[in-house]
Amino acid sequence: MLRNAGHDAVHVFDVGMHQASDDEVVEYAAEQHQIIVSSDTDFGAILARRGSARPSFVLLRHQNELTPTEQAELLVMNLPDLAVDLEAGAVATLARSAVRLRRLPFRQKS
Description:
Elements: H1 22-32, E1 36-38, H2 42-50, E2 57-60, H3 68-88, E3 90-95, E4 98-103
């Protein structure tokens, strides 16, 4: 559905990274200028630790409550509104009833 909506979407299986660590996926996404889409909150922690603005990350919340088709529809519906922020570097959290956006890099609290 993402490809059909005009997005350059690849799955970790498509690039032979289905057994890669989360850190390796983050590095690949940063090098390839890709955005990570996952329900794995570990990616947010990795991005906080890295302190960089790339790659952006879309976190799908409550994904077990959504079918794969509903997850893709949620993405397709929200990506146009998030595009500028995701291009600049951000973490977007998507749930059926809410969208939260945080710009990267994360700032350390004093």
